[in-house]
Write a structure and sequence with these properties.
alpha+beta; 6-stranded mixed barrel; 11 strands
């Protein structure tokens, strides 16, 4: 009887089914968006500032001397220098970017499994490289492999091929097995490159109190405001403040849209099903006449409605 009721008017049943499917597709998509935003906010390090050149043009770098002045500010826990080099391995399609860091990188990026001991080993083996497990798996690299990287950055001897030795592996605790990165020794890179000695691309600054991120960022930029190389210091906290974006906002608006859409579509669907039931009053009267109890008729109506909604919800999700 339930399936007979659903087949009574196939066109209306199909359209009702599709309406509910669309509602739950939208619910699933927006729930995924909300989850993704929450994951991004959860992974953000509010206690870390990125210090770049204010103008950020090609080749616009910061002096290495800024490091000690930033480290002297109240509330600064550690400062890591960062310089990057792009290139490829074997084939131009095998792009790779190497970040050259100091041993303070382990404290500045606690989400990485790399240790201070590993970074100290880079200082002993100047051409050493620590690569992520994802990158090593993709390229098939093992500890001890020598990796020639062709780059646009020239060495002092004129060569543009940099050869590194894989010394170990690391990973990102927030994105296990996903992030691809390679870390090298900043001191080696700074001594070996043909130009740009004594400069960095950026600084990673770890602070003691994440609530003072914006205040510390302003303090850093104020120090170098009138220097030849002014800075722009940012963190997720300062970016969120400027954009007015908070995790609670994403959750509220996402759930508001989902709730509104579900209410409207299910309200329309409910009216359609009520109309169907009203049209079948004579049929229900026949069922009552041949002995069906009130609860039996009500059960048929409810099972038909729940079955239609549940099947559509499962299909949509």
């Amino acid at each position: 009887l339930v399936f007979a009721g659903l087949r009574r008017k196939p066109a209306r049943t199909i359209l009702t089914f599709l309406s509910i499917v669309v509602a739950f597709i939208l619910f699933g998509v927006l729930a995924t968006v909300e989850s993704s935003f929450n994951r991004i906010f959860d992974m953000d390090r509010l206690d870390r500032l990125d210090v770049h050149s204010r103008y950020g043009g090609p080749g616009d770098k910061l002096p290495l001397s800024y490091r000690s002045r930033i480290a002297a500010l109240p509330g600064v826990r550690t400062v890591s220098t960062q310089a990057s080099m792009g290139g490829f391995w074997q084939n131009p399609r095998n792009n790779i970017s190497i970040k050259f860091v100091t041993e303070d990188h382990a404290e500045a990026y606690p989400e990485l499994t790399v240790t201070r001991g590993q970074l100290q080993q880079l200082e002993k083996n100047r051409t050493g490289l620590i690569v992520s497990t994802a990158l090593a798996r993709q390229r098939g690299w093992k500890v001890g492999d020598r990796i020639p990287i062709a780059s646009g950055t020239a060495q002092r001897n004129g060569s543009r091929v940099w050869t590194f030795e894989v010394m170990g592996f690391a990973d990102n605790r927030d994105l296990p097995g996903e992030e691809k990165f390679a870390l090298g020794s900043y001191r080696y890179f700074d001594e070996a490159r043909a130009d740009g000695q004594g400069t960095v691309d950026s600084y990673a600054v770890r602070i003691a109190d994440e609530k003072r991120a914006a205040e510390t960022a302003r303090a850093i930029d104020t120090i170098f405001l009138n220097s030849p190389k002014p800075t722009r210091s940012t963190s997720r906290a300062t970016v969120s403040d400027r954009n007015g974006l908070q995790p609670e906002d994403v959750t509220f608006f996402g759930r508001a849209v989902v709730g509104g859409v579900l209410f409207l579509i299910l309200f329309i669907t409910g009216n359609t099903m009520m109309q169907s039931m009203r049209e079948r009053v004579p049929e229900f009267a026949v069922l009552k006449t041949i002995g069906f109890p009130d609860r039996g008729v009500l059960a048929l109506v409810l099972v038909e409605a729940v079955l239609l909604c549940l099947a559509a919800a499962v299909a949509g999700l």
